[in-house]
Amino acid sequence: MDSKDLKLYEITAYTENHVGLLSAIAGIFARRSLNIEKLLVYPSDVPGIHKFKIVTRCEDDKIENVVLQIEKKVDVLKAFYHINNEYSGRESQLVRELVAQREKEENNK
Amino acid sequence: MAEKKISGSDILLRSLIHQGVEVVFGYPGGQIMPVYDRLMDYGDSLRHILARHEQGAIHAAQGYARAKGAPGCVIVTSGPGATNVITGVDDAMVDSTPVVVIAGQVPVSLLGTDAFQETDLIGLTTPITKWSYQIRRPEDIAWAVARAFYIAGTGRPGPVVLDFTKDAQIGLAEYVPAECSFIRSYNPHPVPSEEMIDRAAKMIDESRKPFCVYGQGIVLSGAEKELAAFLEKGNIKAGSTLLGLSALPSDHPNYVGMLGMHGNVTGNILTQECDLLIAVGMRFSDRVTGKLSTYASKARIIHIDIDPTEIGKNIPVELGILSDAKVALSRLTEKITARKSDEWGMEHIMCRAVEQHRVIDPELHSEDAELHPGEVVDAVASATGGNAIVVTDVGQNQMIAARYSKFTSTRSFITSGGLGTMGFGLPAAVGAKIGTPGKTVVLFVGDGGLQMTEQEFGTIKQEGTGVKIVLLNNNWLGNVRMWQELFFKKRYSFTRMVNPDFKMLADAYGIDCMNVETREELKEGIGRMLSDDKPFLLNVHVQENSMVFPMIAPGKSIDEIMLNEKDFFDREK
Ligand SMILES: Cc1ncc(C[n+]2csc(CCOP(=O)(O)OP(=O)(O)O)c2C)c(N)n1
Q: Whose CA is nearest to atom 13 of ligand 1?
């Protein structure tokens, strides 16, 4: 299948703002020969958390694993994917809750 | 109370000791000399093993980690020292081995200038580590080391690389011991919900022919007892991946042997015939699954693994449980109904008998005057009573060692699985012996693989490491020769080896050696080899054209099992 016949996915990843993370994430795409159509990295709505927005064409049965591979990076808190623009506004709320919950776990240690 | 400032090199070494590191494997060079200079004064509190090549150092650290169950640690210089560890870093990544590599790096001011022996190690290793980090200031060392060990050893273990700049090594700072047991963006202890466990228990109770396939996840989470208890309560048969070997004792009544390409007939057939496949701590490698579309096609599948990227990656599963194997198995065992009978009937006994009759007996009782490698492994297993740690290299020696070794305790089989790194064996055996000095460590290695890292004879000589090296010497790159015979019309392109006199080589290093050609010599040689705790090379001339069967050809369904060059296993017969 020609890659332009593939669906466009938008991946969002919420991360620490650490050196080298961009190339670590880019490597996940390059290794699978996935072309990045669009890339944005900026501070998210959640204080202290950065956000990657990556648009790529990907086979439907591969996208889930790509997102999990991103999330597996130690410095990534959470990653999501959407088809085209059906973006969920709840994402940053979810991440905010996750950060709060993880910090509670740390304090309970 | 401000403590006195000490150098970054001291902070590094004290941080390693603080992490419980007892042994480091390494090799010095320009950009790590400040660390080596301090290392000399640490004496017994940090034992340094000088390898003969950085690849040897990292494989030794891997062998150490896998035998001992503690992270391995490596110190090397920048540039070529660092690039020489990369094979081992990748090997540790695919085989989930906790190792921490500390590599020297040029001063910060020279980064990015192509300075002498500057290599972008972070760039090179990011895709093949759990974490790669450059330490630029002495203040960051204690933190980075604590974090490195936490990441390497938790969740699905793996390698971490610390790129240690010269500035950080020589700069001064206070040493404040650091701990790491939490990183907000990293959760190595996922807890499966009650509902997941209930669903799994229900699926198990509903099944009539359940089968369990397990991997190294059992060993890594220390779930050996939990696995046995689970299998016994549910009366479930189980097969192991190559890396899972020794997690169950070989004579466990529920154990049916190894899975995959050169696995036992039983495990592969039961996978195809079961109505429920319970996969624990394994990753459905293509060497285990064969053709994906026909794999376990009659079964519902439960997959328990700690790595979310493995669940559903190769095989779609009905129920994926993200969990440590030990936690999931113990909770599952409580929930399942004890069962007395199973519906396998004679099936596994029949499979076993066919393999015994068609493959194992002819190999162990060969009419040939020359020894079959299987006889050698079998004789060693009998002599050690299955109590040795078995290390292998890669190739036929590896498959035969896996097939014929016997295990009585866990962490007794150390091999390069996912990467299949020739040259892994000798240094890994050195590391395993150093990590578990009370154990007998036997290495099975081919003549090709031995020559990839034979420089480690030097380490053995210097340290007096009592590894028992069994060279299955066939004068070929045997495994490739076998594939050429089977799949490349017997065109033996560059697989013949003209070998050195291995006995002279061993002599040169002061390693006892015996050449073996006959069955009598084999018996005598094994006796001599195991009579003390000194290093020994048993150079066994084995059949040059032997094959490894059963075999499932790559890409074939795992019930298309070749018993020899012509015949396939036939369930109906
Ligand atoms: C570093 C490396 N290079 C090449 C290979 C490919 N390979 C796999 S098995 C094998 C032959 C191994 O021969 P030998 O070490 O003599 O062992 P045998 O198979 O004869 O037991 C080769 C070349 C590999 N696995 N690793």
A: B477
